[in-house]
Design goal:
heterodimer; A: 456 residues; B: 42 residues; mainly alpha
């Protein structure tokens, strides 16, 4: 009895899918195997239609109508076969204009791209930016401006030299222009044409295109320079873990110690480098259409690793029409740009409205010493030496101020290299006064114990 | 502030330079996708 039951289950398990398949296959006998009205309606409803019965029905003389019949005028091939071949990109096309795209007359993927571009891309991309602006507004309402906690010293420390600020603004300025013109290009048809009309938008669109295409080079150059300037200071450090665990001290009292860049700034830096590079590469491929086949090559690599199947995408297509390469590059360019724009909105907020004293770092390059001690305590120690402990003797305090002033103001103006500016005063101030050296040692011990307490 | 203004000026200079170079590089759509038999300019 058990054997019969198992056999029955086995037979049913084989028969059921076969039965399901046979019932799912539409009856196309009325059209002689061509697509039916139901096929067309299903496609118009946006349903997935298996086009293999059409795409594979080309070039097979045995399947073609006989030459003596009405549709057999091409000697074993038929006009419908030619149209099918054009429709599915397998026709042998010779075009008078040059370029790989010229020989693809019908490109089905274009509709999916257009639908994504004019629908979800605008909706979710724009939504992300609005969400970030709302979140920052809410944060401002709850937390307010992050003030300098301690008493301001009136002394300034050089945080970024002129070349660093120049490169930062080169990147920032170009990014803002690229972001604005990119949004105009993407969203103009939906929002600006209804508001200002075609004539006005045409001028704006042509200008946006010029800016976007040409300013992109400034962004790429600045990205490379920023990487060279700051990569060393952005290498992850163990203090970053503590900083992240304390959320940068945003909602708590006290400031977790940080070097020249805290963990939050490092995240911004690496986001800019990684996402900015990706945007640059996809952007260059869009600037020189059909010259780079990045996605087909990437998909082939993904398939080779089995990652696509593992993530549920199945086998990715390794042969793409030239247009599809551009369409994927455009979508990727836009999506990654939206993510970077959202991150940069947060960066702009915290560097201007969100934090007292932060803008000076990129404005004049000179920051209030107290601000620096609160937000980048370890960096200040590197630059000025350890902080003098609470209520230092008047003489030591005087020396410390003298040392700090020398370290901060004079070397910063006199020398170009920040590292040299950082190390020289430290050594000089130690050599200047034995008293100061002693107080520094004491201060370092205190600071270390404080830092340990904080990290615990 | 000077650095910022200098950077903005540099963006403008790079953009104008890029436009000049690229328009001479033979990569415009007109040059890439048409032949001498095609007249695009009015």
């Amino acid at each position: 009895m058990t054997r019969i039951l198992i056999a029955l289950i086995f037979v049913l398990s084989i028969v059921t899918p076969t039965f399901a398949q046979s019932t799912a296959a539409p009856d196309r006998s009325a059209t002689g195997g061509a697509q039916t009205l139901e096929d067309i309606m299903a496609r118009q409803r946006g349903e997935e239609v298996d086009n293999s019965f059409r795409s594979e029905a080309t070039g097979d003389a045995a399947r073609a109508a006989e030459i003596s019949r009405q549709l057999g005028t091409l000697g074993g091939n038929s006009d419908p076969e030619l149209w099918r071949a054009l429709r599915f990109g397998s026709a042998d096309v010779t075009a008078s204009n040059s370029g790989p795209a010229a020989e693809v007359l019908i490109q089905g993927g274009g509709m999916s791209w257009l639908n994504l571009r004019s629908g979800p891309l605008i909706k979710y991309g724009g939504g992300l930016l609005l969400w970030m602006i709302g979140l920052l507004g809410l944060f401002y309402l709850i937390r307010g401006r992050i003030k300098i906690d301690g008493e301001k010293t009136g002394r300034k420390i050089t945080r970024f030299k002129a070349a660093e600020r120049f490169v930062h603004w080169l990147l920032a300025g170009s990014f803002l222009l690229l972001g604005a013109t990119g949004l105009i290009t993407l969203m103009g048809r939906k929002f600006l044409i209804p508001a200002f009309g075609h004539e006005a938008f045409s001028v704006l669109a042509i200008g946006s295109k010029w800016i976007h295409n040409n300013v992109s080079w400034a962004f790429i150059i600045a990205l490379v320079l920023i990487f060279v300037f700051w990569v060393v200071d952005n290498i992850p450090h163990r203090t970053d873990i503590n900083w992240l665990l304390k959320g940068g001290g945003i909602f708590s009292r006290g400031h977790p110690p940080a070097k020249k860049f805290n963990a939050g700034q490092k995240l911004i830096f690496w986001s800019v480098i990684v996402l900015g590079s990706s945007i640059s590469v996809s952007g260059v491929s869009l600037l020189f259409p059909f010259q780079f086949e990045m996605f087909a090559a990437t998909y082939a690599k993904v398939n080779a690793t089995g990652l696509g199947t593992y993530l549920g995408f199945g086998e990715l297509r390794e042969v793409l029409a030239p247009h599809e390469e551009m369409q994927y590059a455009h979508l990727w360019h836009s999506i990654v740009s939206f993510v970077l724009m959202a991150i940069i909105l947060a960066h702009i907020y915290i560097g201007s409205l969100g934090m007292e004293g932060a803008y000076d770092a990129m404005g004049s390059g000179e920051v209030e010493e107290q601000w620096a001690r609160e937000h980048h305590s370890l960096w200040v120690e590197e630059v000025l030496g350890p902080q003098v402990p609470h209520a230092p003797p008047a003489e030591a305090k005087k020396s410390a101020v003298k040392g700090a002033k020398k370290a901060a103001v004079k070397p910063a103006k006199a020398t170009a290299a920040p590292k040299a500016a950082a190390k020289t005063p430290k050594k000089a101030s130690i050599a200047k006064s034995a008293k100061l050296a002693a107080s520094k040692t004491k201060a370092k011990k205190n600071d270390n114990s404080e830092a340990e307490k904080t990290s615990k | 502030m000077k650095s910022m203004l200098a950077a903005f000026f540099a963006i403008l200079a790079i953009a104008i330079g890029a436009n000049l170079v690229l328009s001479q590089a033979g990569f415009s759509s007109k040059e890439r996708t048409s032949s001498s038999a095609v007249r695009l300019d009015p």
